[in-house]
Every structure is written in C-alpha cells, then in structure tokens.
Amino acid sequence: MAEVAARAGVAKQTVSNVVSGKKVRPETLAKVNTAIAELGYKPNLVARSLRTGSTSTVGLFVPRVANPFYSEVVEEVENVLVGHGYNLLLATTRDDPDYTRAHLENLAARSVDALLVAGDNGVEQQLPMLVDAAFPVALCAWEGDAPTTLPVVSIDYEHAGFLAGRYLRDLGHRNVAVIADLPAHSPRVRGLRRAFADDGLAIDDRQVFACTRDDAAGGFAAGSAALEADPELTAIFATHDVLAVGAIESVVRSGRRVPDDVSIVGFDDISQVGQIQPALTTVTFPKREMAQQAVELLLRAVDSGRPPTNVLTLLRPTLTIRDSSAAPRATG
Amino acid sequence: MAEVAARAGVAKQTVSNVVSGKKVRPETLAKVNTAIAELGYKPNLVARSLRTGSTSTVGLFVPRVANPFYSEVVEEVENVLVGHGYNLLLATTRDDPDYTRAHLENLAARSVDALLVAGDNGVEQQLPMLVDAAFPVALCAWEGDAPTTLPVVSIDYEHAGFLAGRYLRDLGHRNVAVIADLPAHSPRVRGLRRAFADDGLAIDDRQVFACTRDDAAGGFAAGSAALEADPELTAIFATHDVLAVGAIESVVRSGRRVPDDVSIVGFDDISQVGQIQPALTTVTFPKREMAQQAVELLLRAVDSGRPPTNVLTLLRPTLTIRDSSAAPRATG
DNA sequence: TTGAAAGCGCTAACAA
DNA sequence: TTGTTAGCGCTTTCAA
C-alpha cells in the first residue's frame, strides 16, 4: 500500500480511501487506480480486520454436514452470506458440548462478525457463553425450549407433529407407531399425540420406538421392531425423513406394501424423498426460508452495530402428501 | 496482552511465549498463567495472523453443498481439518467461473493457508490463477484432464465406468441406456462403452441420454425418454446416484419393475442409496479417503512451508452390488 | 531465558 | 479533499 501511495504520489490514507470506495477527487482516483493496476496491489484483509475488528466472516454451527437437512441449511446460509459479501466459517458440533465450546472460543478469537447455530443438540449447555459472545448470535432449527435471551428462527415443532397426526387420524388410522430420535424430537411426538388425543385416541408409550441410530439403519431397526410389536399396524410416523426411508424398507422387507398395508409419514422434506419409491408424505420444513431469515437478522445486527432484535420467529410447517400414505385398508 | 504482562511483571514477549507454548521457566509460566486466568485473557488470532501471515484456515470449494456427494466431502474435510487444528472456510462455486474467481481472490486476500478444490466444473478456467496462488492448492474429485501443475487426489473415472459396464455386460445385458450429466461425466460413459466394446458390443449415441437437470427430476426425465426410445431396455446406467434415483422412479412409473424388468446401476454410493427401495447397485467412490488424503497433502505442505508434492493420486473405485440389478429376463 | 524495540498492513482521528 | 500521526495485538529481531 505504501508502494502504491508512493507511485501515485499520494498518502497511504488516500489509497485506503480509494480501495474502500470513499470519496476521492476523480483525478486522484485515476492516479491511484493506475498505480494499483501497475503494481498488482491487493489489499490485505487480515490487516483491515485487525484494525476494524470485523472480518466479514460469519460462523455457522451444524451438528453434521452430511445430513441432508443441514446440508441444505448450509447451502442456503452460504448463498445469503455471499450475496451480502460475507464469508462462511463452517464448524460441525457433532452434538458434542466440548466441540461446540472449542469452536466457539476459536470463532471468538478470530473475531467473526456473527454466529448462527443450527440445531440444539449439545448446544444448550453453551447457551451462557453464546449470550456473552462479543458478536451477534442467533439460533435456528431449535426444537428444545428456546432461550429468551437469544433470537431464534425456527418452526413450531409441536404443531408440525400435530399436522402429521391429524392427517393420519383423519385418514382413519388407529394402529399407529412412532419411530423417533428421542429425546431430541419429543415435541414432534407430542404434537402427534395431541392430534390423536383430540379425538379421544391415545398413543401409548409402547407405540413409540426410540431409534438407537440416527440414520436409515436406525429407522429400519425401529420400523422392524414396531411391526413385530403390532402386526396390525397401519401407519408409521418417523420424526425425520432419513428414519422414514429406513422405515419404508422395514415395511417392504416384512412383505407388506407402502401405502397399501402401512402408511409412512416423515418429517423435514429433504430434497431426496420426493423422488424415491414411494414418494414420501412428509411435513415440509421451510429450511431455506429459515436460513435466510436467520442470516439476515444477524447481518442487520452486524451492519447496524447493535445487538440483533431478540425475536422468536416461527415459520409455518406444512404437510406434503405424496405416495407413501393412504387410508388404512378396510378391515374385512 | 500488555495487561497480562504488566500484571505478571514480565514483558509482552514472555506472555507470547507462554501462549504459543514455547520454552519458559516454570515459575514464570505459573505467574503468567495466573495473570491470564485472572484477566480472562484470550489471544487475538487476527493479530497473530497479520504478523505471521498464516491463519490456520483452509478454504474448500465445492460446486454445491446440498449435493449428497459433496456434503460428505465437506464433512470429511472439516473432520480432518479440526483434527489438525485448522478452520474451514467454505465457498460454493456453483460451477460458475465468475463465482470461483471472486472466491479465490477473497481467499487470497484473507491469506488462507491452503485451498482444496472439489470438482472440476467451472474451475478449469481458473487453473492458471490456482497455480499462481500464494498458498498450496490441491484438486480432488477431478474428472476432466488433470493439470500436471497441481496435485490431484481423485479416482479413475473411466475405470469406474468400466466396472459398471463390465458388470452389466457380464450379467448379459445388451439393451442398455446411459443417462448422464454431460459433458461433465463423459469419462464414466467412456469406461462403460469400453467394457461393452471389449466384447464387440457398441453403445450407440442414441442410447446415451444427457440430463438437462442435475437432480432426480432430470434422471426421471432422461429415464423416461430412454424407456420410450427403446421399450426393450433391460438396464440403465446413471452417471450419478441422484440421477439413478430418478431413473428408478421412471422405470416404476412406466409399469416395469426394478430389477426384474430393468436393472439400474448408479455412481458415487452416496449414503442414502443403500437404504432406498430397491437398494441401489452403484460404483462406490471412496470420498472420505479422498478428502482425507487431499487435506493431509495440503497440511503437510503448510507445515513444511514448501509447495505440496505434486502427485496424481487415484483411489480405486469398487462396485457395490445391491438390489437394483440382476440378469436380464430370459427372452422367451 | 527474558526484555525492549520495531513493524506486519491497514484505518480512525485529526490537522492542513 | 488530502496528508500526518498513531495504533489495532501480536511476533520477530536483537540485545541484555
């Protein structure tokens, strides 16, 4: 920069002004620009960051990237950030409080401008640190009790579960099983139960199968267990789509058909499940809208230099009916 | 830092030595550490980066994150980086040379320590810039002609296609269609063709269907077109799994069955396709090994301060046979 | 082993 | 509008 200034016959400050687009007399601007071009000068953003304390970088915490739900969130967050001229520093928490804390300290030391936390697993314990962070923090896809001290962009998980439950109930299903990632997804299960309870029907604890693994294999195992426990089963609600995919397999392997014998309803509407056989009926989670709103909330705070507006935004989930669900067969 | 030094009664330099784990007399160390604890001192990594020119941050370019192949790569890259104490700056190129260039300049200005580029689409044009970068660059999942100037960790795509082709040929399939993302995936198609050519069989251009969309819907459309063009079709090779999922749907929708009427073979072995119905036969791409090796290659270069060893590493793809493929029905 | 001084490249604040 | 000065927080250099 000093070289550029010397070559253009101006002060470093003037070069700085040119680079950051401040007001400069046109002829000075031209001189500086040619000097920049001739020397191939590129500003050093680390130095700028040290001086200004801001890095144009936003951190994002997700439990895992190779989970279709979160990979879509990551993609959308990056989209929005790039649109605003920000960078994405991605960290996976693995649902592990220790990882989360280590990453948090690292981000703080690197002075990121903001942090978005997606998913609540393993993060609850770090909430005090998040609140005290020197930069704006927002939470999204938060299913547990939302802290009142931080802005949250999420959906009403209980209502989302209710949508699935009401749908199955109205179709006439009575022998229903739930396969769930517990305790993480209990609000979804609660919503489903409420839908049946509204009609005087109870979903027993024995109808709820917790998955030991959070992947399709876990869904397969839980689905198989559910079918064995109640061979008369006519519907399965899986608390997320990946489990639902495993559940479909368990039904098919047992010699039953979907949806003729057993209906399956999932949760999330990850991009793949609309195309599998049978196309999955699921609760659609507006992931991209969520990511967008959360990032924009943060960037507004960054730009204004004030803490983010502390709101709880709940987007509306909807039910997307495809081919994996139908009314139960009339019991001859 | 000055405060800590003052409180401990030492020079700033000594504090620096303590923080970066250099040799310090035990009693001095203790004094400094208590001062650090009392003041809650946290080193400023931006300042360190300005001084040292290194940021403990590695850039990763992927075309898209919400593509199961790349999301697995991202996850593994992050894993390895965290294991080595590095951060991940993630950028999506969207297969767009302009985005790629902009991101590249940004990373350079932020002085990342290294850059890993996954996928070649839209990146070829930036190769000269990549070669000239001030930091180590490596390429992975590179399907086009690999540049000799940069290290590459990839697989032999042509051979991978050959594996799929040989398998289908040996099963006895003769009416085969290919649905492909072209021209990106032509090596895979070439390999398939070679397998058939070895047996004196030719795969005609009319049997190759280019997808207009790079998702399951594109696979569905291409699959439908293929079935219409040749109703006697007994096998479809899709150049990646997401297309294969769409192809399965097209077969089922046409009233045929997989694999009884039509076999489907995919490519990549993304984590979902082992669990769908029918479980997909596919060419397994050792993505995580690839990511690991590429990152470690880069970090070795960073640590040694020398350019990365310029090697071409080709991992071995394998064929994973599941339920979507079988011998063609004997034509009565 | 420790201390003092210098400077990484930039921008905020003020003066001209 | 432009130039000067100072300093962000750290590490490198050199001297004690």
UniProtKB/TrEMBL annotation, chains A, B:
Domain of life: Bacteria
Any Pfam family matching the protein: LacI
Alphabetically ordered keywords of this record: DNA-binding, Repressor, Transcription, Transcription regulation
Protein name listed in UniProt: LacI family DNA-binding transcriptional regulator
Residues that span the membrane, as ranges: none
Cited InterPro entries: HTH_LacI, LacI/GalR-like_sensor, Lambda_DNA-bd_dom_sf, Peripla_BP_I
One MF term in the entry's GO annotations: DNA binding
Record organism: Streptomyces ossamyceticus
